[in-house]
Amino acid sequence: NAGVTQTPKFRILKIGQSMTLQCTQDMNHNYMYWYRQDPGMGLKLIYYSVGAGITDKGEVPNGYNVSRSTTEDFPLRLELAAPSQTSVYFCASLQDRTFTEAFFGQGTRLTVV
Amino acid sequence: GENVEQHPSTLSVQEGDSAVIKCTYSDSASNYFPWYKQELGKRPQLIIDIRSNVGEKKDQRIAVTLNKTAKHFSLHITETQPEDSAVYFCAARTMSQGNLIFGKGTKLSVKP
């Protein structure tokens, strides 16, 4: 059981480039989340999804887009990368919105230069 | 929306001492409060959680207390060990959205 898998682990982007961060989970969880973690800071919610075909904005959605075509996958798209998007990105999932543990992927460290 | 404040931002203790980290939340509808430990370069890992209908929960050297009236909850680590050194995050979740909102973290250093 792989849990939550993120790819890539590391990436360097040039300003203005685009990329997609991949996240997949094999636990049949309905709820999935994207967080960013800046150095020395907590995790801020970018986007979330409560099921296939349903997504919504979190605290810091600007500059990002998501889609949820299947239960397993929740990719995060960065368009026109900016230095302010340099961060570590974590994907997480949980079974339902009650008292269940959120499982995190191993993170993607993104640097925009 | 929910806002979670966490204090202190850094905490240094001697091995064997106790450590306490405190969090406050703003949304009275929040009903689930997990604590995560994040070691350098790793993903956050759940260490303990508490539901809003419980005042205290303990797991070996770790305990969490919740005061719903004051909207604050705390993590207590007793008999600290060097391997407890990490960043600890508190979080709150509301039933309405199910989103986890995190505090900014506390960097705990346990000196041998």
Give structural notes.
The complex is a heterodimer of chains A (113) and B (112). With 113 residues, chain A is mainly beta. Chain A is 0% helix and 50% strand. Chain A is built from no helices and 11 strands. In chain A, the strands form 2 sheets. In chain A, strands 2, 4, 5, 6, 9, 10 and 11 form a 7-stranded mixed sheet that branches. Chain A has a 4-stranded antiparallel sheet with strand order 1-3-8-7, with no helix packed on it. The termini of chain A are far apart. In chain A, 36% of the residues are buried. The mean pLDDT of chain A is 93. In chain B, β9 (86-94) and β10 form a beta hairpin. Chain B has no helices and 11 strands. By secondary structure, chain B is mainly beta. Chain B starts with a strand and ends with a strand. Classes of the chains: A mainly beta (113), B mainly beta (112). The A-B interface holds A 31, 33, 35, 40-45, 48, 50, 58-59, 90, 92, 94, 96-99, 101-102, 104-107 and B 1, 6, 31-32, 34, 42-46, 49, 51, 89, 93, 95, 97-105.
Structural class call of chain B reads: mainly beta
Radius of gyration of chain B: 13 Å
Mean pLDDT of chain B: 93
Q: On the 0-100 scale, what is the average pLDDT of chain A? A: 93
N- to C-terminal separation of chain A?
36 Å
Largest sheet of chain A: 7 strands, mixed
Q: How many distinct helices of chain A?
A: 0
Supply the helix-strand structural class of chain A: mainly beta
Order of helices and strands of chain B: EEEEEEEEEEE
Number of strands of chain A: 11
| Radius of gyration of chain A over all CA atoms, rounded | 13 Å
CA(first)-CA(last) distance of chain B:
41 Å
What pattern of helices and strands is seen along the backbone of chain A? EEEEEEEEEEE
| Shape annotation of chain B | globular
Low-confidence stretches of chain A: none
Q: What is the assembly state of the chains in this entry?
A: heterodimer
Beta-strand percent range of chain A: over 45%
Helical fraction of chain A equals: under 10%
